[in-house]
Amino acid sequence: MAGSSPGVTRKSFLRGLGAAGAGGLIVGGAAGYAGGSASSSSPGTSGRSSGSKAPITIGAGVPVTGLYSGDGQMMSRGQQLAVAEINARGGVLGRKVQISVLDTQIQQPDVMKSVFQKFVSQGVAAIFAPFCTYSSVEFPIVAQAGIPTFHVNTWHGNVDFVKQHGITNIFQGDPSETWYGPGFVVLVEELIKTKKWTPSSKTMAIVTSNDPYSLNIANAFNAEMTKLGWKATMFQQFTAPQADWSAVLVNIRNNPPGIVFFSDYAASDEAAFIKQFRQSPTKSLVYQQYAPSIPQYLQLAGSAADGVLWSTVVGILQNDPIAGPFQASFARRFGASPGFSNAGDQYDLVHLWANAAAEAGDPYDFKTINEIIKGTTYRGVCGTYRFPDDYLTCYPYPDYTRDPSLGMPHLTFQIQGGKQVLVSPDPYTTGAFQLPPWL
Q1: Residue range 190-195: average pLDDT?
Q2: For all residues of the chain together, what is the average pLDDT?
């Protein structure tokens, strides 16, 4: 599996955590992702009493198995590193923190409701469920309990649900997916304006997974580009996972577009596409949304990915004084670098919660903790976390705010020589756009 530490194989990783979906796995802060000894204590409400020194349990609902398990490993490792650092400094209010892991698989409604119900029954102090459902069916469970809950599902329907129902304890730790399409349009215009790239034609081939998240991104991009006079030569939907792109590529090659826009978040899908595209590439700029942030993508795509542009509305900053120490600590602990997105945001969100719990003076004073989080501006390894309105979501820089201290940077990378180069936005860039080798 991508990013595995020495001696930990995919098989042993899944064997060690495979039972999490049924009963949960309690992992102490000092333990490795799969190699440490699990705590023998059981989570519950016994540690809530004033002056208790019992460990504080937080819930981690991550995709341990299934299509998104590569991303799930990054999520869990970010959470574990944060907990290890918190415990090394004495814990929260003098109490150690431990993690209860439950497998969310591919975020089906029944699975997510079961995971959230189990966390509530365990009496956890906070819940970190990076991916959740599009219907928000699990949200009422934790809304009633008041437990501080964090996700990065990047789906505007989730934050709409929070606002419409007056929920005060479910925070989206990144901007919504609605910013992806318009954000790339801004970059396209900038590349043309500065003559760094001249399109072969003002046409675009859009390939998208048929889930609501990917479709929203693809539709928003299509709409914004159409306003600028561009035309879609194709708008092709597929059901993930998909490995054979022959039919799609025949259509692309028969009518070569100026841009190929690929909207999905499964690393295997996007890696397979770019490898097959590069066998006979068209004179097209290629954008792939989010999945190249996962180490598994480059492992699968190899040199075929050189030249690809991709973006994330939440990503680890590069050559950054706050993100740099995190990346070094992560590499020392797990024997591999973190991915470019969810390892960092989970690390940040656990620290954000711990700071709020310490400030509240009681890790189970949920009302106070939620109020503190709502009023917090937190600078983490992924930039600024701020929840300025009742949607309880972050907003992007520079798409929404021109002040980088008030928005989370919408990062666009280009893969160059097997390296991830951050090409937008300033002042976070680490390099400049280069014409892809097939151009």
Answers
A1: 96
A2: 89
Top-level class of domain 10-176+320-394 = alpha beta
Whole-angstrom Cα distance, residue 210 to residue 264? Answer: 9
pLDDT, residue 339, reads: 85
pLDDT exceeds cutoff 90 at 112:
yes
- The pLDDT of 279-304, averaged and rounded, is 94
The residue ranges of every structural domain in the chain are: 10-176+320-394, 179-312+410-424
Q: What is the pLDDT of residues 349-367, one digit of tens each?
A: 999 999 999 999 999 999 9
Q: Do domains 10-176+320-394 and 179-312+410-424 have the same CATH topology?
A: yes
pTM over 0.90: no
CATH of domain 179-312+410-424: 3.40.50.2300
